[in-house]
Amino acid sequence: MALNSLTQTLGLQLPSRIDVLQFYYLGTNIQLSVKRDDLLHPLINGNKWRKLAAFVEQALDFDSLVSLGGAYSNHLLAVASLAKALDKPSYGYLRGDEHRSENTYERWLRQLGMQLMKLPRETYRDKSSLYAYLSTQHPKALVIPEGGHPLPNPNRLAELLDEQPLPYRHLLVSCGTGATFLALAAGLGARKQQMQLHGVSVISNPSFLAELNAQAQSRYPFSQLSPHPEKIRLGKLSPAMLAISKACFEQTGLAPDPIYDAALLLYLHQCLLTGKINSEESCLWLHSGGMPGWSGYPLESKQLFGL
Question: Which domain covers residue 69, as residue numbers?
C-alpha cells in the first residue's frame, strides 16, 4: 500500500487547514494562526502522523510493527492504528512494570490489536540495549523508535511547510523527543526561510535540551529550544497549564493538548510579556494533536470542558 493510498484509507484530512484565533490571557493579546494538525485523524493526528509517514514505506517490507512509550503514549496509539490499517500485528512496550489498573489508553491499544508488554524503568531507560533486545525478540518486525526519533526521512515531515504559504515571523511547536523540531529546522533551512522557529520542550533534562538545540541550530540558525515554562515533570499538570487551557477553549473553542500545547501557550504568554515576541508579529502555532491525552485527566476534563 503506497503512502497516498494509505492516506485515503485512513481518511486523513490533508492538508491541514490554518485557523486564525484572537487569544487574550492575563494581560496579553495576540492574533494567533493555528495549523490544525490535530484534525488530521482521530487517533493518528498531529505530529504522530507526520512522523509515522516517514516509516510507512519501510513498514510495508516487515511482518509487524513494534514500538514503545509511556502509559499514556499518543505515539503507541498512532502505531497501533497504523498497524491495523496495514493489516499487520503490532507490539507495544510500556515504560514501568509496577502493578496498576489498566488505563484508557491501554484498553484502546488492545482494542486496536496491539499486544502490550511492561518493562522495568531501568531496562526502558537503556535505549540502545532495549532496541537491540526488541530486534532480537521480533526479527521480522519494524522497530519504530520511541516518539519516532530519529526519523528515517525527516523531509517527509518537513513537507507540511509546503502545504500553504507561510508568511509568518514565528513558528511555534511543542517538543518531546525532538523529532518534529529537528525536521522543521532542517526543512526551514533547506527552504531558505527567515522565520524564527521556537521549540518548547516538556523534557527537563538540561544536557538533552542542549544537544537538541545545538543539532537544530546547525540545521537552521533561526531556531531555539526552550525548557518547559513550569519546569515540572512530564505528565504533570500545573494550575497555570490548566488555566491557560481553559482560557483557550472558552475563547476559541480549541482545546490544547494537556501536556505539550499547554506548555507552548504558556511559553507564548511569557514571550509576549517579556517582548521576545511582539503582539503585532505574525505567529503560527503547529497544533501537534494529542487530544486523547485528556482521558488521563478525567477530573480536569470535566472541570474545563464539561466532558
Answer: 48-148
